[in-house]
Every structure is written in structure tokens, then in C-alpha cells.
């Protein structure tokens, strides 16, 4: 089983989560490569059994570079005839979406739209979205958003324990698929 962990991270939260997912997958026996959206080059989703795509929620959207990347991939696959009406499910092709967020205004609801949107790119290609993981994370550079928001004091998140839990979940996922 082959997996790719592809992520975008500005202040390091998503990077930490991506690394934990890769570790967990490797521990479960899955061969897992990791790269950023900037490094991803011409990686073909269809060469992998599992694509893990991660990003922060930015104004309840995926960051622009992630959106651009996925749109370009979609255009490529459309040209190749891989986008089909009815989006037939491809057996053995899976996607995991992970999204870090701070939720200062409306909590997890300002992260879920980003996760759902990204998931649709994979579902349109016939990948089964096995899960969306939303990880509460520090909002670097904003004391207000870190302490007075909907989620309370979120400094230092994701914690070591959070990252260990994520690794365990990735081990379970690798064993399950
Ligand atoms: C410009 C900007 C907009 C953001 N918008 C949201 C948002 O809409 N919802 C949310 O939950 N968090 C939002 N955040 C917080 C980030 O999603 C959160 O800190 C994330 O973990 C950052 O990930 P990174 O460290 O991998 O870059 C925003 C952060 C920035 C800098």
C-alpha cells in the first residue's frame, strides 16, 4: 500500500500534523511519502492508494495555493477523461482530508467548509474520502484569537498528546485500508 501526504502550512501547525500522519502510516506498514504543495511537482494521485491532503482553514476556505493546485489537477484529469458523470467509485483509491483551524469566531464550523470543499476534488475523481480530521490549533500572531475566541485558550495546540492521537489514528487507518 502506497500513500502520499501532501500539505500546505504557513505557521507550522499543519506540518506537525502531516508528519504525525506520515509516521503513523509508516508504522502500520504503509509506504508514505510526504511533501508540501510547493514541492509536489507532477505527483499523480492515481499512483497512490491513499492521498492525505492537509491545509489550514483560511477565512473558512482552503489557502489559495491549495485551491490552485487542486484546480490544476482537476483540469489535468478532466483532459485525461478521468472525471466521469456519476463519479464512479474506484475500488482501492482513498483520500483523507486534514484541516487545522483555530475557530476563533464560530468554532469548527469555520473549518468544515474548507475540508468539504477539498474532499470534493477527490470524490469527483472516484476516490473515497475515508475521513476529514479537523485539528484545533494555535493562531500564531493573534493574542485575541488565541485566548478570547469561541474555543477558549488554544495556545500550544496541537499538543504533544494531540499529535500522538493523530499518529494512532493514522496507524488505525493504515491497518484498516
Ligand atoms: C489570515 C488567516 C485566516 C484564518 N482564517 C481562519 C478561519 O476562517 N477559520 C479558522 O478556524 N481558523 C482560521 N485561521 C487560523 C488557522 O487556520 C490556524 O492557525 C492554522 O492552524 C494555521 O495552520 P498552519 O500553521 O499550518 O499555517 C486563520 C489564520 C490566518 C492567518
Task: Outline the fold blueprint.
Layout: E1 2-7, H1 13-27, E2 31-36, E3 50-56, H2 64-79, E4 94-101, H3 112-124, E5 128-136, H4 143-147, H5 160-176
Parallel strand pairs: 1-2, 1-3, 3-4, 4-5
This protein binds flavin mononucleotide.
Structural write-up:
The chain is 37% helix and 20% strand. It has 177 residues and is α/β, with parallel strands linked by helices. It has one domain (2-176): Rossmann fold, CATH 3.40.50.360. α1 (13-27) packs across α5. It starts with a strand and ends with a helix. The model has no long low-confidence stretch (mean pLDDT 98). It binds flavin mononucleotide (FMN). The site of flavin mononucleotide (FMN) has 20 residues, from α1 and β4.
Determine the mean pLDDT. 98
The percentage helix is 25-40%
The geometry reads as: globular
Main sheet?
Answer: 5 strands, parallel
